[in-house]
Design brief:
With 224 residues, this protein is mainly beta. The protein has 5 helices and 13 strands. The protein has a domain at 132-224. A 13-stranded mixed beta sheet has the order 2-1-3-4-5-6-7-8-9-10-11-12-13. It is globular.
Length: 224
């Protein structure tokens, strides 16, 4: 098992650097694939994320024994689809399943879309869904770095986030999500300059690409 330490910008750091920081991640890799992540927060809390294979059993029991002082575990399965990865997550706190989530990641590990799943019906809770659009070119031309709170999102070139109502339809797009200063908002059925078409043109998206953000459906994904 290979161990890699990372800061919250997802940059690799040394073990000595990590131990001097208030918050960092410790990743355990097997065959060049992340198997487990220990996330150490500035509050002193430790969350453990574990990627489960189909033939593994008693994961929570084993993790609880390995980390007796940790009360939050994220147990995930993943499925590769072209240039994307679908992750299904059980969020367990104090031994109880509190949340189920489905995440769609690109080949850089960035979250493209996120659905929170009802733990009883196993259906998406649409008003908790989020989608993200990334573009280095658009980001560098239009977005303002968040100099006050750090530059975590600047590293990802996140241009906007999209949120949804309880029916899974778009409610708003928050442009320049990485900035605390110059956010702009775009809405369905609104006149210019706050309409979706203006957002599409600014981001240089095709109609097919823009339509992906009109609902919270994870798939299919257009080419970006």
């Amino acid at each position: 098992m290979v161990i890699i330490y990372k800061n919250f910008l997802n940059e690799s750091i040394s073990e000595n650097q990590a131990l001097k920081m208030n918050a960092y991640k410790k990743e355990f890799h097997a065959n060049n694939i992340v198997k487990k992540i220990e996330t150490n927060y500035a509050s002193g809390k430790l969350y453990v994320t574990y990627y489960k294979e189909s033939n593994e059993n008693n994961i929570l029991e084993n993790l609880s024994k390995e980390y007796p002082d940790t009360n939050v575990f994220r147990i995930r399965t993943r499925q590769n689809s072209n240039n994307f990865t679908i992750e299904n997550e059980d969020y367990i706190e104090d031994g109880i399943l509190e949340l189920k989530n489905t995440l769609l990641r690109d080949n850089r590990g960035r979250v493209i879309a996120y659905n929170q799943i009802d733990i009883i019906s196993n259906q998406p809770l649409h008003d908790g869904s989020v989608k993200y659009f990334y573009s280095e070119n658009i980001y560098n031309n239009y977005c303002v770095p968040n100099l006050e709170d750090g530059t975590i999102l600047d590293k990802d070139f996140q241009v906007f986030s999209a949120s949804y109502n309880e029916d899974g339809n778009l409610t708003e797009i928050e442009f320049n999500f990485a900035s605390t200063y110059d956010k702009e908002y775009f809405f369905p059925n609104q006149p210019a300059p706050n309409d979706i078409e203006t957002c599409r043109q600014i981001c240089n998206l095709t109609n097919e690409q823009m339509n992906y953000f009109l609902t919270d459906e994870l798939l299919p994904i257009p080419n970006f």
